[in-house]
Amino acid sequence: MGESPVTDGGGAGQRSAHQTRRRRYRLLMAGLSLSLAGALLLAAVVGAAGLSPGEAIKATLALIAPSWVSPDSYPSWAPGLLRDLRLPRMILAVVTGTALSTAGATFQGVFRNPLAEPYLLGVSAGAAVGATISILWQPLAVLGIYGLPAAAFLGAVLAAFLVYRLATFGGETSPASLLLSGVAVGSTFTAVLSLLMVVTQYDLRTVIVWLMGGLTTASWSKLLLAGPVVAVGLVLMLLHADRLNLMLMGEARAEQLGVDARVTRRNMLVVASLTTAGAVAFSGLIGFVGLMVPHMVRLILGPDHRVLLPASALFGAVFLLLADTAARTLFAPAEIPVGIITAFVGGPFFLYLLRLRKGA
Amino acid sequence: MMTGRTPGAAPALQASGLGVRIGERDLLSDIDLTVQPGAFLGLLGPNGSGKTTLLRCLTGALEPSRGTVLLEGRPLDRLSRREIARRVGVVPQTFTLDFRFTVEEVVALGRYPYRSAWGRTQDDDGPVQEAMAALSIAHLAERPVTELSGGERQRVVVAQTLAQETPVILLDEPLNNLDLNHQLEVMQLLAHLHSQERTIMVVVHDINMASQYCEELAVLSSGRLVARGAPDTLLTRELILDVFATRVAVHRQGGRPYVTPLALDPGRAAEGAQSFKVHVVTGGGAAAELVEELAHLGFTPTLGVVSVFDSDYAAAQQFGLPVVSAPPFQPIPAEAIAEHRVMANQAECVVVAPRYSGRATWRTCRWPSKSPVPAGWSCSSTSRPCPNETWPGERPSPCRPICWPPAPSWSATTNSWCAASVNWPSSGRVLEDPETACG
């Protein structure tokens, strides 16, 4: 991503620092890819039913091409376990981690604020209200397992749309008014959520678990919806990487350099919000990933979105996969919400990186 | 890469009937401005006169309420941002970037208009390196831009605009935050770009920088274009008084007008000085200092009779003062004497600058060498060395300090200006007994 061959033959000497950065990027991407492979393997192996790495790989291969592996080399229950439980959950973790961290990086770029997060435009509050309604309002049960994600997605998109509309005056949308209306709409939706939870007589456990975020309910049918939404969002964000870089200098300067800043901002907010909504709908509110992962990558690679976005995607995937694996195994047989792990691990590591940077 | 000046080419920029109205306020009205390819145009005007608004209109950042802008003959609103950005580079007034890009990365962002969706293109690196070299920031290439000083940042953003390789460059106060040497560097860079036939339009606060470097100047005042022309003809005391409400002296330096503000400190200006007529009798440069002092105080003294070679004459020219002059080294013509007398009689105060001087002025005005300096008058230090400019065969006159009466002041009791004055006898030869008119 963002890589093209180094073309200058002459200035080899003075280009060294640039090449160092390039090398660092390649190293990090390679390391992250390896980590992802390792994390996938780890997630496939650990759990209530133990598998060896070899068994896990063979069982997975057996799912894809049964003729390639001998059925004796893995426990007979392994393919089923992987297919129905572990693999969808692992992939959902990857998808969600990618979605949250790239959407976070995009929001931070558009708002020129490293503290912006994927839930900025009220996506989280909207999704929460949608999810709660779907749980509490029985008629929606006809949608089956899609009821909650669909309602959460709709709630998220509705909230983001409201925030964007409310922040637009006479065709102009300023980042400051977006932040403010995001906060206002978020508070309103949170109030609605609280009200719903107070007045209902149903069991709130499902709602609370969803709010804390978790990948427990992962399934292939859900991935079939979440995957494409996030994939399209990711590609669109990557295509805008260059423009996001220019937006960091302010929209006026970006326009002077040929970026249609207002269109870019609108498109990116829509894309990032939809991507977030796609992830949130299936895995609930997982905090900290979208805020922290891009920031950590920025500390290592710098703010160039052409490297930041791909690296954040990988980093987010690895991070959430590991966090989810920890969430389901650390206190086995009990599971803890993955959001607790992301905050618990991410916070100190983030501080460590920050202090390391200050020292250097 | 650069588009050169081709005969008959469309103007680089052409604004016609441009107006910007925001709410009830007209930020710009009726601007007709044509910038030919290869022009080096300085845009002057006081704060709030609409310079930045005009630049924004010329780059399509602001849609005018009235009128049109043509870029190389094509309407600006029909061009995409990218198309505009390949033709017009803008150096903004302020530039903030809170993310740790390196200087080189920031300069390379200037290549965006030429880039595909992915990454650097093949010919990016040359322009980026050249731009950094031109602004002497190559050594900062790997430094995070967040760690630079204001001046270094300013040079980075100029370099970014250079990397854009546009035939037209607009700059909004590019000298902001720059030390004098870097100011000169930027102006010289602009002159260099001008020599490459690029079209340059620059908003400059420093009138003298604009005068020294720009080929042409345009002046905005309250949203209107009030003057346009070469610095030589445009920069007059009148225009600057009119537009900037500042009295200035206009000298020449390096072949271009050079402006010095007068009465910078409003407290220094004598109240009512503008309408109070003072005539200075001088010659041989005797009153150059006095004339300057009076001008700074807000007076518009008249001078006579001075030789066109005298520093008095130069001073009068510099401050734009009415002066009766005479050819050097010869008797003063009768007309000059008559004119001088009229001038002196019209004055409310005649100041004589007594000092040894050449024959010509001697004839105009003779200060009685033995008479004492009147009370209240100020004199320059007597340690001033006597000028050694005796005419052949003439006895050197005693050297006297320059003396001048107290600055006029308003007297509430007589309801008139009180000032030391001297009688100007009709014979016009000898001045005696200066007396104060104040009771």
Please render the helix and strand layout as text.
The complex is a heterodimer of chains A (360) and B (439).
Chain A: H1 16-45, H2 53-64, H3 78-110, H4 123-136, H5 147-166, E1 168-169, E2 172-173, H6 175-199, H7 205-212, H8 220-239, H9 241-247, H10 251-256, H11 261-283, H12 289-301, H13 305-329, H14 338-359
Antiparallel strand pairs in A: 1-2
Chain B: E1 13-22, E2 25-35, E3 40-44, H1 51-58, E4 66-71, E5 74-75, H2 81-87, E6 88-91, H3 103-108, H4 125-134, H5 150-163, E7 168-172, H6 180-195, E8 199-203, H7 207-213, E9 216-221, E10 224-229, H8 231-234, H9 237-244, E11 248-253, E12 256-261, E13 278-281, H10 288-296, E14 302-307, H11 311-318, E15 323-326, H12 334-346, E16 349-352, H13 359-364, E17 378-379, E18 403-404, E19 409-411, E20 416-418, E21 420-421, E22 435-436
Parallel strand pairs in B: 3-8, 3-9, 6-7, 7-8, 13-14, 13-16, 14-15
Antiparallel strand pairs in B: 1-2, 1-4, 4-5, 9-10, 11-12, 17-18, 19-20, 21-22
Helix pairs in contact in B: 4-5, 10-11
Could you please describe the fold and organization of this structure?
The complex is a heterodimer of chains A (360) and B (439). By secondary structure, chain A is an all-alpha fold. Chain A has a single domain, classed as ABC transporter involved in vitamin B12 uptake, BtuC (Orthogonal Bundle), CATH 1.10.3470.10. Chain A contains 14 helices and two strands, in the order αααααββααααααααα. Chain A has helices spanning 16-45, 53-64, 78-110, 123-136, 147-166, 175-199, 205-212, 220-239, 241-247, 251-256, 261-283, 289-301, 305-329, 338-359, and strands spanning 168-169, 172-173. In chain A, strand 1 (168-169) and strand 2 form a beta hairpin. The longest helix of chain A is centred in the N-terminal third of the chain and has 33 residues, at 78-110. Chain B folds into two domains: 13-261, P-loop containing nucleotide triphosphate hydrolases (Rossmann fold, 3-Layer(aba) Sandwich), CATH 3.40.50.300; 266-430, no CATH class. Chain B contains 13 helices and 22 strands. Chain B has helices spanning 51-58, 81-87, 103-108, 125-134, 150-163, 180-195, 207-213, 231-234, 237-244, 288-296, 311-318, 334-346, 359-364, and strands at 13-22, 25-35, 40-44, 66-71, 74-75, 88-91, 168-172, 199-203, 216-221, 224-229, 248-253, 256-261, 278-281, 302-307, 323-326, 349-352, 378-379, 403-404, 409-411, 416-418, 420-421, 435-436. Mean pLDDT of chain B is 75; it is low at 1-5, 354-374 and 377-439. Chains A and B meet through helix 9 and helix 10 of A and helix 2 and helix 3 of B.
